[in-house]
Amino acid sequence: MIYKLLLPGEWTAFQGSAVFTGSPVDRADGFIHFSTAEQLRETARKHFAEESGLVLLEIDPARLSGALKWEPSRGGALFPHLYAELPLQAVTRHWTLLRGAGGELIPENLI
Q1: What domains can you pick out in the chain, each with its CATH number?
Q2: Residue 84 has what DSSP assignment?
Q3: pLDDT of residue 101
């Protein structure tokens, strides 16, 4: 599985249209950024440190078109990048993330 963090408004729009064309950063880069489970904490810290109410999406790569590529990024690690729209049917699970006392992101159902 791969993962995508969305702002609450992005998730609402995605649910309404059943397709996600990317965040402003995704669109500027020409692909939708994803993370593996191991990369997720650093992605959240680096790009979403001040955000609250984030939505974490779990994506099944088998439900994506052949436009998913694994490319080097931070420190040479391979990150999944989608060069197409993300269909809602590729989302297998989602969680709203809240900030814990130490600032860490925690799925709301664990609080």
Answers
A1: 2-110 (3.20.170.20)
A2: S
A3: 66
